[in-house]
Structures are given as structure tokens and as C-alpha cells.
Amino acid sequence: MTDHIHFYEPAQGHGLPHDPFNAIVGPRPIGWIATRSGDGVLNLAPYSFFNAFNYTPPLIGFSSIGRKDTLRNIEQTGEFVWNLATRPLAEAMNASCAPAPPEVDEFALAGLTPDASRIVKVPRVAESPVSFECRRTQIIELQGLNGEGVGSWLVLGEVVGVHIARHLLVDGVYDTAAAAAILRGGGPADYFEIGPDSLFQMRRPSYP
After folding, report:
1. How far from the centroid of its chain's Cα atoms is residue 33's Cα?
2. Which of 162, 84, 85, 156 is nearest to 119 (CA)?
3. In sequence order, what are the residues at sequence separation of 6 or more whose Cβ sits closer than 8 angstroms to the Cβ of residue 26?
4. Tell me: the pLDDT tens digits for 89-144?
5. Which of 48, 77, 82, 126 gives 20 to 30 Å between its CA and that of 89?
6. What 3-state DSSP class applies to 24?
7. Are 21 and 49 in contact (CB under 8 A)?
């Protein structure tokens, strides 16, 4: 054991003012997920455990900690839409994470405009510059080492439609920095913004 390293076993507690796990594995892209219930009520909620998992077909996924409205809606309809959370939309994104009951439409709660999708029946966030229309492929309850469920569900979906604001396509190449995406950091309230100042490039090396 060295004095300059803080070591802990998660099962025994971290011994810190705030669990560092989310801050270490971060910043993370935000899964801003729109769904529609079987009764037609719209739902919009951000998820901080989110990412892309495959190129062809394009697969994305997020983890629902607990059986939330988003998970139940996707179980009922098999569809969802991911929307890019950007710096101008940060406050609206944050408003959409309020613990509202199932009958509340978070689009209206956050002052956002639902825009009809092309393929799925769930609308996209009109104000977001990028959206993925998705159809569910898998829902998997996560397990711990003991093989028991932990009360979280990984939701995976295939992207069947992509919306991109044309100003983000520079000579046909998507400009990640110009989108000003926000990412979830650690702590109770930390976020990060992607911008041109944080960009650097490395080409994949050839071998041999």
C-alpha cells in the first residue's frame, strides 16, 4: 500500500465525500431519450450511462437504474429517439430529468417542441441538432458477481433513422466541436462542453 494512492473496495464503501466512480468514467455522452407510452403520453429523460456500441448496424444503448418510465415505454412500444444534448439546450435537458409522474409530458415540462420522426412513432426534440430514431433490439437486466440482478437494465437499440442539422456537416464531415455537445461529469452537478479548443488529432498507426 502506498501513501499517494487511495484504494478502496466498492463493496466496502469508498470512504470519500462523494462516490468517484462517475467522475472517473467520464465525462460521458448523455442519452437524452424520448419515448411514447402505450397510451400515447410522451416522455423525455436524460441518462448518463449511454454510448454507441456498434457500427454496422449502428447500435446505441443506455442503462436505466430502476424501472423508469423510459424503460417501460420502450418495453411497450419497442421504439425510442436519442437526441443530442448541447450547451444551448442544457437547462432544458436538466428540466427534463425532474422526477415527474408517468402522465407528465417532459417535452412540455422543459419547453421543448416534439417533431415527428420519419420512421418511428416517437417524436424527436426539434431544438436538438442531431437525433437518432431507434428500434429496440435488447433489454438486459444487469447482474453482479453473484449472478443476481442489480435493478438496472441495459437498453439497446438499432438506429434506423438519423437527423443532422446541415450546418454541422462541413464538406460532408460531421463537425463534432461545432455541435457544442455537453457531457456528464462526476459529482452531483458537473458537466463538460465539447468545443474547438479541446480538439486534437491522432491517426491510427499502421503495423508493421
Report:
1. 7
2. 162
3. 183, 184, 185, 186
4. 999 999 999 999 999 999 999 999 999 999 999 999 999 999 999 999 999 999 99
5. 77
6. helix
7. no
Would strands 169-170 and 173-174 be described as parallel, antiparallel, or unpaired? antiparallel
C-alpha cell at 31: 442519452
Beta bridge partners of 174: 169
- Of the chain, the end-to-end C-alpha distance in Å amounts to 40
Asked whether 154 and 140 are in contact (CB, 8 A), the reply is: yes
What type of residue sits at position 199?
A: L
Backbone angles phi and psi of 18, in degrees to 5 = -145, 140
pTM exceeding 0.85: yes
Task: Find out whether the peptide bond into 57 is cis, omega within 30 degrees of 0.
Answer: yes
* CA dist., res. 93 & res. 23, Å (int): 20
User: What residues contact 99, with CB distance under 8 A and at least 6 apart?
Assistant: none
How far apart (Å, rounded) are the C-alpha atoms in residues 90 and 192? 11
Dist. CA 125–CA 184, nearest whole Å: 19
Q: Is the separation of the CB atoms in 191 and 89 below 8 Å?
A: no
Rounded Cα distance, 80 and 161, in Å: 11
What type of residue is 63?
A: S
Cβ neighbours for 204, distance < 8 A, ≥ 6 positions apart: none
Which region holds residue 151: left if phi is over 0, alpha if psi is between -120 and 50, else beta? left
Helix or strand or coil: residue 26? coil
